[in-house]
Amino acid sequence: MIVGSDGVNSVVARKSGIRTRWGSDISLCLETEVELDDALIAECVEAGTLEFYFRGPGMFPKRGRLSVGLGGPISQMRGSRKMFMSFVKAISLQKKINLTDRITRINSNLIPLGGVNRKIHDERVILTGDAAGFVDPFLAEGLYYAIKSGEIAAYIAALAVENNNFSREFLAGYVTKCDDAFGSDLKAARRFAKFAYGNIDRSLKILRSDKQMFLKYLETVRGDMTYADFNKWCVLRSPVTFLKLISG
């Protein structure tokens, strides 16, 4: 059997017929790494801080370089390179450091947001990580889901070998275990992302005005709290505010 862990452009998914193309819930991300000395990086971004811009890209400081990225639904990413360079120019002015002339290469990648209700297995084939579309639909983070689905895939593959059973029905146990491990959280994250990005001004206003809610949100971003628990906490914390946010 084959475990397809070959990313968003999975050859295994395509050749096996599990998936020939992604649907509309796919996003595009552009990214570059600007080489800077640590002193300049410290001037750009405070130590230990990641900068997110909810209507644009984000910046991630690393040792000796700065990662700058832009992402969004592919339907909204026409002219993405121009959008990306406009952001870099704006940041250069804001930070008073010329980042534009330091860019040597811009990388682009597809990100399969959503992670639910997709075919991820067939006879003798299992897909994991980005190949399966296991990506947080709010933050577009997929490392945890890649590792977890890989562990589950290894367990199911061992069982298949032990039982000499590689049928579609037997390997459906992989789908069940993934759903039990993180399916409900991906669904909750999808609901959260849908109304948060659909009401971005209102969402940010609430987070600014409610420090305790903001701190709970940070716990969710760090992975210390699931989206399902965060949504539940918000309802219990301030049901009227939460309902206003959803209803607009």
- Tell me the total number of β-strands: 8
> What's the CATH C level of the largest domain?
Alpha Beta
Describe the biggest sheet?
Answer: 5 strands, antiparallel
pLDDT averaged over residues? 86
CATH fold node name of the largest domain: TATA-Binding Protein
Strand content: 15-25%
**What is the helix tally?**
10
Count of discrete domains:
3
**Secondary-structure content class:** alpha+beta
Q: Tell me the Rg in angstroms.
A: 20 Å
Describe, in short, the structure shown:
By secondary structure, the chain is α+β, with helices and mostly antiparallel strands. The protein has ten helices and eight strands. The strands form two sheets. The protein has a five-stranded antiparallel beta sheet, covered by helices on one side. It has a three-stranded mixed beta sheet with strand order 1-8-7.
